[in-house]
């Protein structure tokens, strides 16, 4: 303690010396700065004592209270005279004082500033010294308290160290005793977690296997996996106690319904393109589902009709969306209606551009023929499997009888499966035999809507349209096994087609006559082609060939609508080449309008034989076309106007 007291005293004396030195350095620094800015005259050298030694020591004068108060006031005044910037850390006193001096400042002004700042430094040094001396007792007392606390802390440290040693020994003893118990409980927890993880993994693997079966088309295996998974998650199953069991059970149910939906979608795809292997897997799935035979039969017929509808809508919608005219002219609402599938089939047909009507009919005819072929293949599949099931039933009965005689096991479960399979095959086979007319009627509705589009009857391509319609009607008759609703629907459209074709021809005739130059064209008129068209046109010849062909013959000959000839080739099939049969070589010439009129007349004549119900209408159109052309030629070359001719014609009484 005495050493600390002596140290504090020496520290106080050092502070006194330091503040004195600080004041001297501050005064010297300020004075030096001022002298550097303003050159000062060098003061005269101080007189040295005559004796060359130190000045004689003088006693310190006594300071009275009045002098002390006066000194205090001067100190306060010196501090108050300082600028407030001196109390800021970023303040530059030299720049401040130099800026305060006038440009014509003299040595006296600089000395005054130096004296003022020196006095301020002395005042600050004195205040600091008195403050330190005033609180010296408190500092000593604080050091004493710190020393006392240091002893207490050392004693506490020793006690804490001993306590920690004791606690460490106790912990080691308890850990040694609890090691066996902890290991046992840990093993129990791990075994429980392992069992739970194995059950969750089993449920997860069932889900993945179910998904893979769905994607590969193994619908029977998928349904079995769904049943197994649901049995494990149901009450009493090994996974029923899991917290996630309700969620897993709901997930399995969703995947089960998704499997059934995919099964129905696969059945519809099979109706468009039949595959015996894929269809067998579908029947296995329906058998394991437990569906009733009558329900499956209705589902198959519905799938075929929906396939017809989807094919028609897909072809027409794709054509509308792909056409540039529809994309440019369709409003936003109409385009959205096309994309979301809310537009009906008649609405889609009315939006078809003129150039895409006949290609759309050709594509739809090709798809409908493929659907008919799939229908026939499915019916043959059921007939063949019915016979196979009958043979298996007979063989199984003989084997069961032998097992009963020899004391073998009962095969009742296998017999039940075979009976259910036979029931499904018989029900679907009967529905396929009885449902041909329904499928044909569904196709007739779509074809009728497409044939009644006004653009279908424009131009000579109507001959190709009639040829396609006759081929479709022949396929429908062979499919049904007699006159079908498809032929009735197509025949009902011929009148509208002929009427539209005639309007188009009359309009074209007016334009031809207005632009006719009446110049001879080489090659002749080919008038003999009309007689040939009346006797046996290309459509009539094709219809005669199709009349005796059954459905198997159609299937063996291939799809008649795939890769068919162009409309121009089909329309020209009845034309007679220059110099050919029926033409009078070198005897006749023709103009552009006459050649076109002859081509139209040949087309009308070619429609007389295959369209018996429209013969009167076709003959009326032939007469009107010929009369209009003959009248135009008469007026042109006779010089008689229509008005004069009308006044000359009087009604007979």
TrEMBL record:
GO MF, one example: SNARE binding
Keyword Protease: no
One Pfam family here: Vps54_N
Region (Disordered): 39-74, 387-413
Compositionally biased intervals (Low complexity): 387-404
GO CC field: cytosol; EARP complex
Domain Vacuolar protein sorting-associated protein 54 N-terminal: 81-381
Taxon lineage: Eukaryota, Viridiplantae, Chlorophyta, core chlorophytes, Chlorophyceae
Organism: Monoraphidium neglectum
Coiled-coil annotated residue ranges, if any: none
Keywords from the named record: Coiled coil, Protein transport, Transport
Biological process annotations from GO: endocytic recycling; protein transport; retrograde transport, endosome to Golgi
Protein name: Vacuolar protein sorting-associated protein 54 N-terminal domain-containing protein
Entry's transmembrane regions: none
